Amino acid sequence: MEGLILFGVFLLLVFLNVNIATSLAVSSILTLMYMGQPLTMVSSSIYTAMNKYALLAIPFFILAGVIMDKAGISSRLIRFARVMVGHRKSGMISVTVIVCCFFAAISGSGPATVAALGAILIPAMTSSGYDKGVSSALLASSGAIGIIIPPSIAYVVYASITGTSVAKLFMGGWVPGILLGVSYVVAASWSSRNNKNIVRDEKASPKERWDAFKDALWGLLMPVIILGGIYGGIFTPTEAAGVAVVYGLIVGMFVYREIKPRHLGQLFMESAVGSATVMFIVACAGLFTYTLSVSGVAVSMSDAILSVSQNKLVLMLIINVIFLIAGCFVDANSAFYILIPITMPIARHLNIDPVHLGVFLTVNLAIGQITPPVGVNLYAAAAVGNISAGEIIRKITPFIICGIIALMIITYIPQLTMLFVNIL
After folding, report:
1. Cα–Cα separations (whole angstroms), residue 178 to 147, 174, 216
2. ω before 151 within 30° of 0 (cis)?
3. Is the CB of residue 125 less than 8 Å from the CB of residue 188?
4. Reduced to 3 states, what is the DSSP secondary structure of residue 148?
């Protein structure tokens, strides 16, 4: 009965268009009241969910992403990518994916990547002859790589729930993120195979490439400094987030000089709103996770899934299906808090490495960001590209198919995820 109340009320509220965080909190409180639990446990579980050192990285990474966006790093990355590969076949497709991967390594957020790059990349692709719907679908898909390529807020949240090393998750995300990017290049190339209007850029001279590289160098160095410091043991992921903010301010104010002192208040306010939104979700989802545990619903659902089959390949497929469906309706952070208590016992039973589990679950949720009906990147790309969401949805199918193929490769070949983890 507890499970029926918990998930029934949650799904009902989501169906009524109540925001995810409120739906999680209300369904949890009603379930605890039904169980006769003291409501003092609500504040206690919320405090426990938020009182984790790893979560301190979230507001800093959000602030770093806002700063680097305002510093003009996106336009410089795009120019550098265009002079390097824009003259090749499907050049602008590759430019879009490459720049999204680089910017994802700065912002760590899918919608933020779409918003920051869309105003430049979508017009650039359409001026090169690409269909606007395909261009917007490609940007939405590539922007979703933001939660896979490190540093990623989703990895920080997963690590805070499971106790997994954030640094190992960051290292494990590189190969899957690149593989997903390649799959989207294939999807966009296939979608544009009959387009006769595509125009390639002229091949840049060595001097043009060198100038573009020098101009983009400070932006290219940011993920190198952050991740190199983490992997080199110089600072923790949380400290790295603080370093990213300081580095971003120095670059924006003194190198590119596009951030003025009068802009700081707006930057801090924008990042504060973003951070508060994420932490509110974390707080309410933590309460939901606590309710799942004390009610025994998590254990019952894990046992039910294990009773379906003892075959590891089948159970991993079931986990993927669950997270793919969840990703269509809730954000990655909420999905982790809702489903990890159910998934982790299964993963331990199957002897799945928690780093591999965290990465392929995140890939599921990245695909969910471009899957109707609630794929947030679709609507972000529609807003930036000034086209209807329906037009993007009609063009998104090849990207979802190629993304799922990449997901299956990542899921069933764990060596891809663990390659750099094992090396270090």
Report:
1. 12, 6, 21
2. yes
3. no
4. coil
pLDDT in tens, 61-107: 778 878 877 887 777 888 888 888 877 777 788 888 888 877 766 66
Tokens of residue 79, six digits: 């120019």
- Residue 215 in contact with residue 79, Cβ under 8 Å? yes
Taking the CB of residue 87, how many other CB atoms lie within 10 A of it? 13
Rounded to the nearest 5°, which phi and psi values hold at 170? -60, -45
Q: How many CA atoms lie within 13 A of 51 on its CB side?
A: 6
Torsion-angle region of 21 (φ positive above 0: left; ψ -120 to 50: alpha; else: beta): alpha
Q: Smallest Cα–Cα separation from 289: which of 9, 31, 14?
A: 31
Q: What is the DSSP string of 266-308?
A: HHHHHHHHHHHHHHHHHHHHHHHHHHHHHHTHHHHHHHHHHHH
Q: What is the pLDDT of residues 146-168, one digit of tens each?
A: 788 887 888 888 888 888 888 88
Angle at 176 between CA 151 and CA 108, to 5 degrees: 20
pLDDT along the chain (424 residues), means of 10: 78 80 86 82 80 77 79 80 80 83 67 73 82 85 84 84 86 90 90 80 85 86 79 79 85 86 86 82 82 75 78 88 82 82 86 91 88 74 77 85 93 90 80
Sign of the Cα pseudo-torsion (266, 270, 273, 275, in order): negative
Identify residue 155 by its one-letter amino acid code. Y
Count of the separate structural domains present in the chain: 1
Longest Cα–Cα distance of the chain, Å, equals 73
Q: Which residue in the block uniquely carries the two structure tokens 């001097």?
A: 207
Domain interval for residue 33: 2-423
